Each structure stands twice: as C-alpha cells, then as structure tokens.
User: Fold these one by one.
Assistant:
Number 1:
Amino acid sequence: MNRWILLLIVSPFIGCGVAAIVLGHNDMAWNDSAVMGLYVDAATEGNLLLGPYSRFEWHHPGPIYAYILAPSYALFQEAHLSVVVTALLGSATSLVIATRLLFGFTESTAQRCGITLIVLVLTCAAIKGFFARPEWNPVVAIMPLFLLHVCAVSCVLGRFRLLPLIVFLHAFTAQSHLGIAPAATVSFFFASVAVIMRSRQQPGVKRSLIFAGVLFLITWAPVIAAEIEHGNMGQILEFFGNNKIAHPPLSELLASGTQVIGEPFSSGFRRSGLATEFGSCLTAVLIGLIGFGLFLALKRRNRVATWFLLWSVVLLIVAVTSLLNIRGELHQYLIYPFLPAVALAWTGVVLSLIPKRECPPQKRRWVLGVTYGGCVALFLVGVIMAIRTHKNIDPTLTRKNHLVENAAEQIVRELGDSPLIVTGNHQAWGSLAALMLQIKKNGYAPRTRSSWRFMFANTVTYEDVEQNGAYIYTEAPKSDEGLRLLGREGELRVYLR
C-alpha cells in the first residue's frame, strides 16, 4: 500500500487524537462518555455482563467493547483520554486493514484511487461523531462494521482464514449497538456458511472454523450470562413488540436516510434546505450505478465486483429495514448502519466500472493527482466540520471539571466512603455520571437511586432510603431548604444535605 495513501487514510483520526489532547476537553468524561467510563471501570474488575445502556431502559447486546477498552484504561491510571485514543486507534486500524484487503483485489491504479476516495468519504461522513465523541458506542462501531463487510466478501471469494476476524468483528459491532446488529449478523452469517460449505473440500479451512467457533463462544458467553441473570434480550423483544412507542414519520425516516447517503456533502446543503434533495439525487444515482455495474460485472464475469455489488444490495435492504423499525425520536446516529453499506456499494461500482488494466504513465500521474487533490479536499471538509463541532463545546467545561473534582473529594470527606449522589432534576443525569465516575476513580463506591439502574447497571450500588447525600441540579432548585451549596458553575450546582 502506498505510504501516502496510508497517511491520508489515518490523518483524520490523528487529527481527532491531537484535538482531544490539545483542547483537553476529554480530561474528564461527561454524559454518555462518563457512563461508558463507569462500564469500563467495572470491566477492569471483571464483573460487567451488560452492554451499553439504551434510552429505552434496556441494554445493547453485550459488554465486549468495555472489556476491549479496559486494559488501556487500567494501564493509563483510569485517564479518560486513554479510552478516546484507544477508540480512535481501533477505527483507524479497521480502515487500514479494510483498505489493504480491497487493494488485494486489484492492481489497477485507477481502481485503487477510487477505493481510497471512498474510504475518505466514509471517514468524513462520520467525522462529526469522531471529533465530538469518538468513544461513543454508535460511532466506534462504524469502521469495524465496514471492515466486517469487506472481510465477509473476501471470505466468500476464498479468503477463509479471515473467519476468526469476522467472528470477533461481529461480536464487537453487534454487541456495541443493536441498530448495527442486523447488518453485522448478515455478513457474519453468509461468511460462516461459505466457510462451512468449503470445509470438506479444503482441509486447512477446518482449523479456521474450529478457532472461530471457540472465539464465538468466548465473545458471546457474557451475553448468555446476562440473559440468565438479567433477561436483557427479553426486555429488548418486549420493547420492539410494544406498539405504544411510535415510529418516526416515514417521510422523516426516508429524508434522514437519503441525507446520510449523501454525507459528508449533504451538510453543505443544510443551510439552504436542499440536503434532502441532494441526498435523494445521490441515492438515485447510486441505485442506477449499482444496477449498471452489476450488469457489466455479470457480462464481463467479474466475480469480485459482482459479489461486492450483490452484498451491498443485501446490506442496504437490511439497513432500510432497520431504519423502518426505529422507535421514538429519530437521531442521526441511528442511521449510521447505512454508511458502511453505502461505502461497500460505491466500492462495487468502482470495481465494475473502472477498467482493470493499468493506466499509461501520463494518465497514471493524472489519476494520482486527482486522487490526492480529492483526498485533501475531503480532509478539509472534515476539518471544517470538526471546527463547527468544537464550536458547540461548552466554554465553561474546564471550570466544571474542576468543580466536579473538588466536589468529589469534599463529598467523600463529609459523607463517607460510599456517598449517596442524587439528581435534583432529570437533566442532571450527565453530571451525575461524571461525579460518580470521579468518586470511583478516587477509590470510593458511590450510590444513587434505583431509578437509574437501567443506565448504570451494576457499575454502582443503589439506595432509595431518604438520607444525607449530595444533590446535583442543572437548574435552580424549587426549594433549597436543608441544602448547602458546595459549588456552582454555569447551570451546574452541587449541594450537600
């Protein structure tokens, strides 16, 4: 692989890591990042069975993500920055491996340049999430999901030794977020079937099959244990069987889906109100190119392009089905399963429409120049989107970090080693998570109300008896009787009772 292409591919992730270190906004975790910190802390103790929480009061399938983050978290003395950097490294590594596998299917400079542009577009489409919260479970699974799809197609085309990696990637992506699980499971299933069908013909395949089977049991054992102890999958099935929770309007779902297909370029049309129109046009173009590319691939007996296009069609159907099953309020991260399937479709289009033969030297230089120019343009798009994301960062965050650090020490001094932490209003949940994580880092065992059990699982203990404790508000309390103010920064207030 050309080292310049490699550098271009990983540069957005390097930029994310540098931004996290220089800006320092990841010194302390807040909101969902703090909740993830509590899960990782529990994983370092080996007693975590449940996956990340859902706003609908159940948990995503499994805890493998927290266990992957646990070693670096423990090694770097529970610094949240270690979680951020590990997540970025995982995404960058997934993208590099996927690109190397794709390059293995062609020697054509033009096709390789097309693949490079697709990979950069995929990165830029998800760049907002990577700059804002790279460790967040819907974001961290995007690049491994793309790698899983590429590995699955490669496996069907004869690279059977990739099956153990497919098993691991399936466990990681499916357990991290339920919305990604259907697409991940489809790729895992078909790749496994392909290997099993060939295992009799090629004796060496059996070793990969046995290793993959053992790895499957190891990675899914916590999920089975969680089902026995908590009945989590039963809660998920009950949720999706509940017709009381409404779907978002179909027009809104379709508009969001087409906008995501048009990313990162759709963002440039949002102010003019044309993002949906642009996304719809690009979706129509993609569908037309998939059909035309499939026709050419079958006519030319291009087996590689045929499989990539067929696989992308299946995955896009799965993504649309997942989209139509969304419940409650629609958020952009729920559309993320579209991104890897779209990238795979564009890859199939490149492999079917661009000739395999090598370009003449003059054309080769022209193709490389256009590719590098396109990569730089895409990188600048990512930088602009990142700057816009960072403008939304709370300017008082550093002072809030200091407030939580000081409050955590004072709360333990006054309330003991297992202080009760209570939210005065529901919107204070993110600050509650940040404060409890800081108290755990200091070596103590915070407690909170059992109404938050769906969010924190077994990472903390629970107490519903009225007693002295610390109260967190993100608005003025209706009555401050009996409350002593420990500190205030902006809308955040911490009291003792």
Number 2:
Amino acid sequence: MVADRRNDRPCAMRYAFLLGVVVSSCVLCIILCRPDLRRALSDLLFRLSFARAILRQQKPVSGTPLELFRQEVLNPIPRSVKEIRVDRTQEVFGYGLTFRFKIDVSDVDLIIQARPFKRMTDFTYQNRVLHWDVEDSPGGTVLLYPSDSHVPPWFTLGTTENAQGYVVMDDEGYRWSMWMLIYDRELRDRYRDAFFIISRGTH
C-alpha cells in the first residue's frame, strides 16, 4: 500500500512559514539591539525610498529628435545641425540619452558655451563603458548601455578618431547628471560628426 502524502504538504508549508517568522524575528531583534545595524538599515531604507522618488522624476523624456535636441542639448538648435538621431537608455536608477548629428564647425562653440564644460584630455569607449579624463580634476566612468539593451548601429563612438570632447558633471547629493559632447575635428569639410551623451541617475 502506498501512503498518501498529500496531507503532509500543508504541514510542511506551515512549518516553513513558522521557521521564516522565527528567523525574521531573530534578525530583527539583532538589528534593534545593535545601534550600528539599526543605522545601516535606516540608511538603506532612506536610500531606497529616495531612489524611488528620483526614478519617478527621471523617467526618460519623449518626443521627436528635434524636440529632444531642444530640451536636452540646446535651444534654439543651431542652423547647421542636421541628421539628428537619438536613442533612449533605461537603467535601474536613472536613464540616458545618446545623440548623433552633423554640425558646422563654426557652431560647435554654441553647444560648448551652453554649459560649464571641461575639455577632456582623453576618453575611451569599450564594452559599452565610457571612461574620460579631464585637466585638473578627477575623470569618470559611466555605463552607457546595460548588457541587456540594444545599441543602435549608428552609435559608433568607439571608432571615432581625431575626436575632441567636453564634459560636465553635476552631483547633488544622491542625484547626479552628466553631459558630454564629442565631435570629429578632422578637416574633411565644414561639417563634423558629433555625439552628445546624457546620463542621469542616483548613487
């Protein structure tokens, strides 16, 4: 005769639930009795609630390439700017925008003067990670595209030669923003290929 074990399942589930309650209670008692752990838990909860609030404010903006250029790069758009392409990237604690466009060399300064940019002394883009150095201050590193996201075929920043770049960082406590302009300075004609990169998130 084969024993019917179906009645054992509710008992096992109850025991597992009670064990979970006991373990959780023990952990909570330890945290409450340790001031350092209590502060760490409080800080973690604050960071999570803050990140959720920031995420509500930092949902990627929407619009046509022209509208996004006006909102995020420069308004009014310089007359020479053409062939604007834009891509949006969604991350865990923020979002990013990547632009590619053509611009007359005489209009590049209009974008540079719109923010307190610093000239980059060097930059590299490999495996979706962008690293840069600037004069007289620390450089930085940012993941432009998460591993599970699609990189548009026109985003060929890693193959850009003879490039010049400018970057500005804005760090407000738990919230940070980065704007970067990289353009081709090779003298082929008046127009330059340019990339404008925006990344925003929380610490």
